[in-house]
Structures are given as C-alpha cells and as structure tokens.
Give the backbone structure.
Amino acid sequence: MQLLTPDFGLFFWMLLCFGIVVFILGKYGWPVITGMINKRGEEIEESIRKANEANSRLANTNAESERLLLESKNERIELLKEASNEKDKIIADAKAKAEEEARKIIERANESIQLEKANAIKEIRQQVAELSVIIAEKVVREKLSGDEAQIAMVNKLLDEVNVAKS
Amino acid sequence: MKFNRIIRNSFSRVLFCLLMILAPLSLSAQESGVENASEEHAEAAHEKSGLDIKELIFSHICDSYSWHVCTFNDVHFSLPLPCIVYDDGLKVFMSSKLGHEGHYTEYEGLKIAEEGTYSGKIVRVSDGSRPLDFSITKGVFAMMISCGLMLWIFLSIAARYKENYWRKPTGIQAFLEPLIVSIEKDVIEPSVGPSGKKFTPYLLTVFFFILINNYLGLIPGGANLTGNITITLVLALLTFIITNVFATKHYWIEIVWPEVPTWLKVPIPLMPVVELIGLFTKPFALCVRLFANMFAGHLTPIVLIGIIFMFAETSVGAALGVSLVSCLVITFLTLLECLVCFIQAYVFTLLSSIFIGLGQVHPHHSEEVKENNLIENK
C-alpha cells in the first residue's frame, strides 16, 4: 500500500520545488526562449521577404535601365538623323540664297551695264551731233563766204538753235 | 576533426547514446554486483533471511531516507540524507542515525518502521504513529537535483538567446530548441487554443520536468521519481487547479447544464453528475497514467533480475540460462523505456493542454474548438 499512498513530505517538497521552478522559468526562462525564437523566426521571414523584394526590384531596375538605354540609343539615332537633315537643309538654303544673291548681282550689273550703254550711246550721239555740226559748220563756212543769202540762212538756223537752246 | 565537431555540437546525440548504452549496462552491473555479493555470502544470507524478492523490488522502486548505492559483503554503501521531522519541536538529523536496511536503530524516540501501514517510514517508537515528516528523502533529493538541472539548463539557454538571438544555436541550445518549439507550437498552442499563451510556461515546465526525471530514473542508481504517485499527484493536481481556476463561464455551464435532452437533466441530474465525475477522472487519469507507466518501466527489469535469483536457489545452470534471456529482455525493455520516457512526458503535456483547453471554451464556437482540438491532436 505504501506504493499507492501519497507521502506528505514528498508532496510538500514537490509542490515547493516545482512551484519555484515554474515561477523562475516562467519569469526568466520560457518567455525569453520562446519570445526570442519567435522574434528570430519573424526576422528571418521578414528578411527573406525583403531580399525577394529587393531582387525583384533589382530585376525591374535592370529592365528599366535596358529600356532607357535602348530609348536613348534610338533618340540619338533620331537626333543624328535630324541633325543631318538640318545640315542638308541649311546647305540647300545657303545655296539657294547664294544663287539668288548672285542672280540679283548679275541683274544689277546688267542694269548698270544697260544704263552705261544708254549713257554711252547718248554721249556718242551728242558727240556725233556736235562733230557733225562742226563738220557741217566747216562745210557751210566754205560755201557761205560770199553769199548773203547763205548768211541769212545761217542766222535763221542759229536762231532756231538758240530758240531750241533757250 | 569531424568526430570532435560532432561531439561538441551534438550534446543531444551523445546524451541519448549514453542513456541507451548505460541503461542496460547498469542493470547488468546491478545484476553482476548482486551476484558477486551473493556468491560468497549466498548461503549465509539465504539461511539468515532467504532471498526476499519483494523487499528487493520495493526498496528499488519506493522512496527511502538514504540514497542506497550498493551492498557489498554486508557493508551498505549509501548516501545519508537529512531527515527533518516535526515531533515536539523540529528534529533534524542525518538518516545514517537511523541505521540501514535490516539494521534499523532508534533515534530520539523515532525509528523506521519495518512493517505495518507505515513500513519504511519514520514513526514514533512509542505508538508507531507518523510525525510530520519533511525529510529530504531520496525522491526529494533527486527532485531537487532535477529542478536545479532544469533551472541551470533553461536559464543558460535563455541567457544565450538574450545575448544574441539570431546566432545559430549550438550545443544544448540546438538540441532543445526544436523540442521546445515543437512542444509549444504543435502540442500546447493547438490544444489550449488562442487564449492559452499564459499556460505555456507551466506546460513547458511540466514537459521538461517529466522528461528529465524519466531519463534520470533510467540512469543506474537514479530515483524512481515519476513512478512515484506523490509526484504525479502533484502534477495532476496542478493541472486540475489551473484548468478549473482559469475556466470560462461557459465551461461551468456545460457541466451544470449541458446541451442534452432535458429529461437527462431533470428530475434526475444524470448528465451533470457524469460531467462532474468527468471533472475528477481527468486529473486522476493523468496521475495514474504517468505513475503506472513509469512504475511498470522500473518494475519489469527488477522482476526479471529477481527471476534469475529465484532460479539460482534451485540450480546454477538454470540461473545462467535464465540470466541470458533476462539480460536480452531487459536490454530490449530498457531501449523501449527510452522511448516510453519521452512518450509519457509528451502525453502528460498533451493531455494537460487539452484539459486546460477544454476549460477555455467560448459559447459561439465551443463545439468547433473541441473538434478542432481533437482533429489536430490526432
């Protein structure tokens, strides 16, 4: 029967010791252990999640940068094309302008040549007229040396010239 | 190098292997020790008292006032422990004052009874009644050692977590962490339910207390602590008190006025009575289950050793044959016991968690919770 009857002394000590162990471990043992294990677990989960996020973000960034690179390349090509077009246009414009200018200069030169020509012709005509007058005078002077009627006619002509002159 | 590292890092495996190796060895050692002792003095001893197998078994399984190591040539080697008795004032003395098994002596009007209801306990010489006995017996001493061991192990682990919780656990920390986590997450949390956080420290302490004492009991010379009904009674009582003190209102309603047809409740309160009985059978089952398992685990090897000596009284040849068989069976049983030690600690914790969890029912989904608990625990 000793086997099945609880012993008071052992009961007392068991209650005391076990109570102390539960109290101490309940205060300084288990909460620390389980708390830290949980904390560590959460932290591991969190950091793996973050790493995954960072990886995907990195992949995104890579794609983005590649896209940007491609875009900038295209843009450069475009720009170069544009620039060469511009160059061609400028050259063409310049050419056109130069031609125009040249054409104008030639025109002006032609005009002035025409004018000079007209002037020259006019002068020549005048000189021819004067020369012819002089020649005519010389011819007339020899014929009119003694003739009254001819003097009258010269006078009459002189009058006419004077009239025309005045 | 590799071997060294294994030893350093796996305290666990070494401990387990030691237990596995030592347990059967110890029993054979006990056996051969007794055999040696009995060879020379066999006749003398047998003539004096005969071989009292029952006495042998009980002295191994029951509590005693001194920690008996061995008896060699009629000389008792034992560790005397302090006796603290309250009988007309406090009396404190070493157990060696009371003599040893077979040679009990009186001291200050007290002696260890050899027979009767209080056989093996300190009684008054005058009328054979029990004084208040707070002696540090073998069981108490073993329990104090295991308590100290627990405090040391878990406080040092806690200190290591506190120091640097993200460091990779090593040594005993690495051994116990999966155990702590699995008991907490797979046994306690699903059984107790969401409101059970506050019971975790108690349940974890119960688990490791039983586990450590079970395994310490396997070591040769270790005390049979968890196979002592007083210890299991205290543990079951604590679970009972916690279950009922922290129980919700709905838990009591279910006991006094369960959801069954009214004729089962009035006029004869059949179901309430059944429920009320159930209230007490639960801790009783807890108490007896652990006690019986561990007690039987300690009993069988000793009985098997006893059989050898019973045969030795008839012929040496029979004893040799039986001892071979006994040794094999004991080795197997001790290996089995290594498993049982863990299973019993696990079962006690699991049942305690379930009982406490049953006290935490809430009216809306009480049935669901119960069912979930059962499903999860299966």
About this structure: Strands of chain B lie at 66-72, 75-80, 82-86, 90-94, 99-100, 103-104, 110-112, 122-124, 132-133. DSSP finds eleven helices and nine strands in chain B. Chain B touches chain A through 50 residues (CB under 8 Å).
